[in-house]
Amino acid sequence: MAKKAFLLSLATLPLVKTETVLGLYIFSRHGDRTPKALAPTNLTSLGAEEVYASGSYYRNKYVASDSTSPIYGLSHDVAALTQLAVTAPVDNVLQNSAQAFLQGLYPPAGNFSTQELRNDSETTAPLGGYQYIPVNAVSTASTSSNAENSPWLQGSSGCDNAVVSSNNYLSSTEYKTSFSQSADFYKGLLPVINSTFAASDATFKNAYAIFDYVHVATIHNQTIPASDLLTDQTLFELKVLADLHEWNLAYNSSDTVRAIAGATLAGQIVEALNDTIAGKSKQPLHIQFGAYGSFSSFFGLAQLPTVSDDFTGVVDYAASMAFELVTNASVSAGSYPSADDISVRFLFSNGSAADLTPTAYPLFGQQETVLPWSTFVSEINKFAVGDTPDWCRVCGVTTGSCASSSSGSGSGSDSGNSEPATRAPNGSNISLPVAGVIGALVTLAVVLGAEALIYFFTGLTLVKKSTLAASTAATTPGTKA
């Protein structure tokens, strides 16, 4: 009787709704690399391992068949290329980091890649079924190749107004004070860095480049000149000065164009998540690799420094932030939740996710870590730059790809609607699938036109394959019709 009473009491308890992850957007920094002061930079073996481990963490949480928070409809073992979009700038360090991350996310398929042939033999793809997942180059006005070789944060942004804004910091009283107060500190480091930095370059102006050079040396070099100078306090001060320098180049609350990298990233995030909702999770996973400056400027725009001062520092190697699309509504092949039933959760890990479990933080000065989709869209669109015309307008650029962009384009705020976003990245009003069809038809027309000219001038004629086979059979001895 007691057992029956217990079961009856359980039946009266309210059902706990199970949360479903409908989609995920990951933005990650590259792994350990060689110093910028000794360009060209290259991803190290340690760096590849860092991002590989991070990819493995995300696999265990979201992708594997026994994952703790499986993404709805996502293939578990063999990557379905239509389900994920991976991007990185045309940069050696970032592209290679993305590839290493993907091998952790979707490792070699093993038995899934073994096939039995007609002659009863079996064949397995190379490297145990290594999965070839393409990393698409980010193609926007705000990116350029070899971004990791640039020692200056805005060196590859291409945004004129952002460059002017960052330069304003370099002429500010705040900068000049930091410069003068740190002069003796950098002068004292010359025995450590004088093989690369001249005395005139050992200043706060090169705060990040000097920190980066010493930081890499402390990881990789067996011997360092005058290493006794590199006390824990000295290393800490190097990091603090580099953080201060780079933060002020990346974000300014009264001149937000300085944070163009974060604004552009925000536009990409909301568009990708919107596409996931509009497509009912047909493409639920988006992954992008980028530089630390994008983290810093996004953090500033999203008001994350009000949560913790840690968000004003340069993020560590393999750091990542993720945006989960979640719902407590029922999800099935015939039932997909409406936008009103979907929310967004932001998570951040300041290092490889395998070592530092991503933690949820509240965005936009909100109290909750899980925001309704409508709230997320409303808040992020206050600063997101959604397309090329908008970027050109904000940046004050009128040359190159901006020369043909419409100056009257909106701010990209409609990318947060529950309906599919229809703008292509080039700012046109043609969606990517439609643009692809149009391109294919144009190509077909050109090919057919060329063939028509060849037939006209050479006197050739088209013959059906069956007619040709019959003709050949009739004139070739021993051939069956």
Description:
This protein is an alpha/beta fold and 481 residues long. Among the domains are: 20-145 and 258-380, Phosphoglycerate mutase-like (Rossmann fold), CATH 3.40.50; 432-475, no CATH class. It contains 16 helices and ten strands. The chain has helices at 2-11, 45-63, 92-105, 126-129, 160-170, 173-181, 183-188, 190-193, 207-220, 232-250, 260-278, 292-301, 373-380, 388-395, 432-458, 465-475, and strands at residues 20-28, 84-88, 114-116, 122-124, 136-137, 285-289, 320-327, 342-349, 359-360, 370-372. Strands 1, 2, 5, 6, 7, 8, 9 and 10 form an eight-stranded mixed beta sheet that branches. Strands 3-4 form a two-stranded antiparallel ribbon. A hairpin with a 5-residue loop joins strand 3 (114-116) and strand 4. Helix 9 (207-220) packs across helix 10 (232-250). The model is unreliable at 6-16, 140-144 and 406-481 (pLDDT under 50). Residues 401-418 have a biased composition (Low complexity). Pfam families: His_Phos_2. This is Acid phosphatase. Residues 401-426 are annotated as: Disordered. GO terms for molecular function: phosphatase activity.
Entry summary:
The chain crosses the membrane at residues 432-457. Keywords: Membrane, Signal, Transmembrane, Transmembrane helix. By secondary structure, the chain is α/β, with parallel strands linked by helices.
Write the layout of secondary structure elements.
Elements (H helix, E strand, L loop, with lengths): L1 H10 L8 E9 L16 H19 L20 E5 L3 H14 L8 E3 L5 E3 L1 H4 L6 E2 L22 H11 L2 H9 L1 H6 L1 H4 L13 H14 L11 H19 L9 H19 L6 E5 L2 H10 L18 E8 L14 E8 L9 E2 L9 E3 H8 L7 H8 L36 H27 L6 H11 L6
Parallel strand pairs: 1-6, 2-5, 2-6
Antiparallel strand pairs: 1-7, 3-4, 7-8, 8-9, 8-10
Helix pairs in contact: 2-3, 9-10, 11-12
